[in-house]
Recover the amino acids of this structure.
């Protein structure tokens, strides 16, 4: 048997499938079976156990170097204390899983919305592929329920806070000038109980086959755009009026400069959709914060 010496990060995702109590032996057995079946070279990988139920397991396998946006999903079964892979890949046929006896609760619970209108989509119970959570275990498709999903790395103390992906707000309006609404969803990534989040605005548009993502605006771009107009400036969190769509523009309102607990300014930043990305439409404006 090939021996894998790569360091592993095993995470348990508590989302739509409750992972429950998974023994250390099962964690290691599941990870070893997936790695052996994939024939991986000695690289760092993240093995995310989405759930274990009735002798079956669903696992996410994400490469760290180079990073990927679409993890492989594997389904395993435990026979005579040994875990073996039943199916794996970036897409697994639901009927095949049913035929193999995989419990309903472990099969993919999310389906693309059948509606083609963004206003009919419940973005607080939705599957996201965030790009702004680099460096955390919040990788690949993550399904939020009631606007939140938590992931706890197995190499972190069990009493430590998990990493979380949360939906802060959803705004609707016409971003492209076609007289149809888009949706702008503000999500935040919080690592290890930190008192701040890394933010991303993900825009969705209506399509005949269901809504689809059209693009996103990440924390790094927002900070760079602000720093160009205010050298040395620092962005903090969002105000209650965080995200709106007005006059075909994405309008963001954030705290800036001063200290995290005592910001100096409220900054308004306006973005326009330019074919395939968001671009700053005007110089950010500032008003004095928190008198």
């Amino acid at each position: 048997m090939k021996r894998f010496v790569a360091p592993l990060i095993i995470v348990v995702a508590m989302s739509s499938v409750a992972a429950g109590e998974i023994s250390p032996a099962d964690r290691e057995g599941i990870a070893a079976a997936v790695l052996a079946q994939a024939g991986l070279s000695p690289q760092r990988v993240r093995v995310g156990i989405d759930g274990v139920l009735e002798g079956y397991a669903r696992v996410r396998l994400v490469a760290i170097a180079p990073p990927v946006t679409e993890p492989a999903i594997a389904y395993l079964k435990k026979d005579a204390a040994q875990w073996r892979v039943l199916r794996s890949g970036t897409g697994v046929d639901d009927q095949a899983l049913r035929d193999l006896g995989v419990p309903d609760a472990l099969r993919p619970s999310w389906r693309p919305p059948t509606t083609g209108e963004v206003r009919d989509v419940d973005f607080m119970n939705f599957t996201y592929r965030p790009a702004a959570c680099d460096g955390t275990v919040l990788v690949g498709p993550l399904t939020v329920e009631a606007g939140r999903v938590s992931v706890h790395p197995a190499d972190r103390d069990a009493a430590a806070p998990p990493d979380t992906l949360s939906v802060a707000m959803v705004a609707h309006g016409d971003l492209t000038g076609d007289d149809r609404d888009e949706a702008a969803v503000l999500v935040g990534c919080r690592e290890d109980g930190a008192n701040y989040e890394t933010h991303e605005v993900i825009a969705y548009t209506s399509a005949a086959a269901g809504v689809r993502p059209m693009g996103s605006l990440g924390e790094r771009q927002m900070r760079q755009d602000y720093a160009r107009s205010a050298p040395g400036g620092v962005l903090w969190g969002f105000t209650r009026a965080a995200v709106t769509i007005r006059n075909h523009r994405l309008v963001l309102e954030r705290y800036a400069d001063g200290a995290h607990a005592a910001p100096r300014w409220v900054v308004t930043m306006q973005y326009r959709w330019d074919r395939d990305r968001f671009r700053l439409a005007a110089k950010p404006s500032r008003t004095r914060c928190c008198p």
About this structure: Residues 8-106 form one domain. The CA atoms of residues 36 and 136 lie 25 Å apart.
